[in-house]
Specification:
By secondary structure, this protein is α/β, with parallel strands linked by helices. It folds into 2 domains: 237 residues, no CATH class; 260 residues, 4-Layer Sandwich (Metallo-beta-lactamase, Chain A). Strands 15-14-13-12-11-10-23 form a 7-stranded mixed β-sheet. A 7-stranded mixed β-sheet has the order 16-17-18-19-20-21-22, covered by helices on one side. Strand 14, helix 11 and strand 15 form a beta-alpha-beta unit. Helix 2 runs antiparallel to helix 4 and helix 15 runs parallel beside helix 17.
């Protein structure tokens, strides 16, 4: 029988039962998140599950496990499994801490040769020491080698399949996922051919033998009938962009996801694609049915969980021609290589760009541009804004960049010329730095430091300065994470008094007063240029 995936079928990619985001793929960062964050949070839940559930309902995005007490046995089993099945990650985390101590005890300025004999056994052959020009000492890991070592195991990866019911999910950084009668765990790694085969069936009919393949890899006592609920014989109503040679169109899908199309050539930024809910409501969102059969280029702006979304990327993998990513420092725990993360999860044709490096397209150019802010003042290179030219139309893709140095974009304008169409994020009051990077810190921070070093984007003043530098004529505020179906990944719930809303309103009013078109995008939009 020919069947299709149901349009509200959810795929949650998991690493050891946690929703997968980039820092859970990179072995070094994951070892610290597992030991310093996941296990501690789960153990806290076991001591007082009712309090966790109560606080999770009040503070979305907080460090509270959003499970009822009836999941206590599942959590207890996961804690034991993490300790029993991942001793090498505990070993790696301990070795990283020892490495920090070795560096702290070294007399600054002396030769680094003696340090190599002191490297913990777990990291021998995987470390380089180095000074910068200010005599600051830091170790660098051979990141590529970590993926070839015992520290990276694809067996930790699996998929959770279930049907979307009302766009409600627990927050991904605080709550592990477990199978149930309606949520089926499939034990295959992310690079397994079954993933691409399954999600081609979002728009192409497939053979119902795939149900037997899923059943063979399902966890627990799963029946064929449970898996059959995920499929339908009804063909989807496809609605790809209507391309022509006269104009560039942009479909705003949500958050930082924009699909630029010209003459059947497509470029997509930071892909997150919504699903139908259980009622099939579509009026407020684009879904997988609204995509082209092939996406020539995917652009990723930075390595955060709401911009590199494996749930969507895995389902699009078979459609993507090339993925463009920012180049990392390679080997620093806080800045894992996006290229290595993607290559080790089954993606091909990945191109790294740096600032002012260009890639020629059939109908234009993609170039990297600087990206300041939004990373808590950590030294991180794997972040870019982008210049995109299609059919002589120029676009700035700004994501969450904070315009801390207006001169930077004046330099860009001098080189690229005026960039009239600007997409700019304005999440100008982000989370404290420790919210995302805390488990990886080797030196404790004070509360005041953590509050100061927030993951902030531009406010109205900085965004206006950016627009003036680029000589913008059309402005689209995006990357706000406000769509209700994204709360599980962004934890954002704005009201009219929220600072990002207030500041973006200021920007729009000032732009309109100057004769510049401006709007804040939400839900879905289709724009012609």
């Amino acid at each position: 029988m020919s069947i299709y995936c149901k349009p509200n079928l959810v795929l949650e990619p998991m690493v050891n039962n946690w929703y997968a985001w980039p820092y859970l793929i990179s072995p070094a960062s994951y070892s610290l998140i597992l030991t310093n964050h996941h296990q501690r949070m789960l153990q806290s839940f076991l001591r007082n599950p009712e309090q966790h559930k109560r606080m999770a309902s009040r503070m979305l995005g907080g460090p509270f496990v959003d499970h009822d007490v009836n999941k206590k046995d599942f959590v207890e089993e996961l804690v034991k499994k993490n300790e029993a099945n991942n001793p090498e990650l505990y070993e790696l985390a301990q070795a990283i801490q020892e490495l920090t101590k070795i560096c702290n005890e070294h007399k600054i300025g002396d030769s680094l040769e003696p340090l190599y004999d002191k490297v913990p056994d777990a990291l021998k052959g995987l470390v380089e020491f180095g000074y910068d020009l200010h005599n600051n000492l830091s170790p660098r890991l051979f990141e590529g080698a970590l993926y070839k070592s015992k520290y990276f195991k694809k067996e930790r990866q699996s998929l959770l399949l279930y049907l979307n019911e009302g766009d409600t999910r627990p927050f991904i950084l605080s709550t592990p996922r477990f199978p149930s009668e309606t949520a089926i765990q499939i034990e295959v790694p992310f690079d397994h051919e079954l993933v691409d085969k399954l999600f081609k069936m979002r728009y192409q009919s497939g053979d119902d033998s795939i149900i037997d393949e899923l059943l063979k890899n399902a966890v627990g006592d799963v029946t064929k009938q449970q898996l059959e609920q995920f499929f339908t014989t009804q063909a989807p109503k496809l609605n790809p962009p209507k391309c022509n040679t006269d104009e560039v169109t942009a479909r705003y899908f949500n958050h930082a996801t924009v699909l630029f199309s010209y003459n059947d050539f497509h470029v997509m930024t930071d892909p997150i694609v919504a699903l139908q809910d259980e009622k099939g409501a579509l009026e407020d969102r684009w879904t997988y049915e609204d995509l082209p059969e092939k996406i020539d280029y995917v652009i990723l702006t930075h390595n955060h969980q709401d911009h590199v979304v494996f749930e969507t990327l895995l389902q699009l993998r078979h459609r993507i021609g090339t993925i463009i990513v920012p180049r990392s420092h390679n080997g620093f725990i806080q800045d894992p290589s996006l290229r290595l993360i993607l290559e080790n999860t089954g993606f091909k044709n990945i191109v790294e760009l740096g600032e002012f490096e260009e890639l020629n397209l059939p109908f234009g150019t993609i170039a990297g541009m600087p990206f300041l802010g939004e990373h808590g003042d950590l030294h991180i290179a794997s972040k870019l804004t982008y210049f995109l030219k299609m059919n002589e139309k120029k676009f700035f893709i700004g994501a969450d960049a904070n315009n801390l140095s207006p001169e930077m974009y004046q330099i860009a304008q001098d080189y690229f010329g005026d960039i009239p169409n600007v997409f700019v994020g304005m999440e100008c009051k982000g989370a404290p730095m420790s919210w995302l990077y805390g488990p990886m810190l080797q030196v404790p921070m004070s509360r005041s430091q953590d509050e100061m070093r927030r993951l902030n984007g531009s406010d109205a003043r900085k965004a206006l300065s950016l627009l003036e530098s680029l000589n913008a004529k059309k402005v689209f505020v995006y990357a706000m994470g406000a769509e209700p179906w994204l709360s599980f990944i962004s934890s954002i719930d704005y009201d009219i008094n929220s600072q990002p809303i207030v500041e973006s309103n200021k920007l729009i009013e000032e732009c309109q007063a100057q004769g510049v078109e401006a709007e804040r995008l939400f839900g879905k939009a289709e724009i012609s240029f």
